Amino acid sequence: MLGKAIQSGTKIPVEWHPTYGVPFGDKKNRTTLSSYIGVVAREPVNINYKNWGDVPKEIVDEEYEIIAKGFDVLEKRKKYILGRASIRWRAFKTRLRKYWLYKVHGNKKVVRKTSPWKYPMILQTNWNKFIKTYIEDDAFQSTLDAQAQRGEITAKGRDDVLAKAINKSDHGGRVRAVGSGVSNKAYFGYNQPTPPNRMQAQVNYLMKRWVL
After folding, report:
1. Domain that includes residue 83, residue range
2. What does the DSSP 8-state code read for residue 116?
3. What sign has the CA pseudo-torsion 178, 180, 182, 188?
4. Which of 46, 96, 163, 175 could hold 169 in an S-S bridge, CB 3.0 to 4.6 Å?
5. Which residues contact 138 (CB under 8 A, 6 or more apart)?
6. What angle do CA 110, 124, 162 make, to 5 degrees?
7. Contact assessment for residue 55 and residue 92, using Cβ atoms and an 8 Å cutoff
């Protein structure tokens, strides 16, 4: 349906909620729009950009233009469309890391050195860089896990091991590496203050590192 619409120059209509500014109405059209945003988000955007904000503006604008060719979206909905694209792009990178970075060989988990056959747009050179980045992250996270088990650091709630591994706690609105649509409150609950004994343990650990 979408391919025919683009070829003929006929755009698929999308109704927008007058108050919330999100697609509503025809479910089939909404689902098609959502799926297409996901496809467009992962095709031209290199998986090795660290954050969506690092993606060059011309590539982001190109993504919007591609989507707008097939759907009746107003310019004022551009922010929503690109916001959804950024979410789908992050979710795509999470899937790559979770399902494609490693494979089971015998009783061992080994790195998958060949780029995923399911996503032929990922060049081998880009996949090699992706592997290097996240293997290093995983090794660092394993070190943090061990330190947390020994009580050298606290890893709880928003200050979890993944947050420490990237040196940043989860910010309001979403949680890293658990897919889209999961808020901090839903995943972690309220951000409880660190008890004094745990705070002192963290200070002691940091003091040790500075001395070393």
Report:
1. 1-90
2. P
3. positive
4. 163
5. none
6. 50
7. no
In this prediction, residue 188 carries a pLDDT of: 45
Number of domains into which the chain is organized: 1
42-70 residue pLDDT tens: 988 999 999 999 999 999 999 999 998 88
The answer to whether 88 touches 108, Cβ cutoff 8 Å, is: no
Amino acid at 132: K
The predicted model scores a pTM of 0.65
- The three-state secondary structure class of 105 is strand
Cα separation, 146 vs 98, in Å, equals 21
Q: What is the pLDDT of residue 18?
A: 85
Examine residue 105 and state whether it is found in any structural domain, yes or no: no
The DSSP-derived string for 132-167 is HHHHHHHHHHHHHHHHHHTTSS--BTTB-HHHHHTT
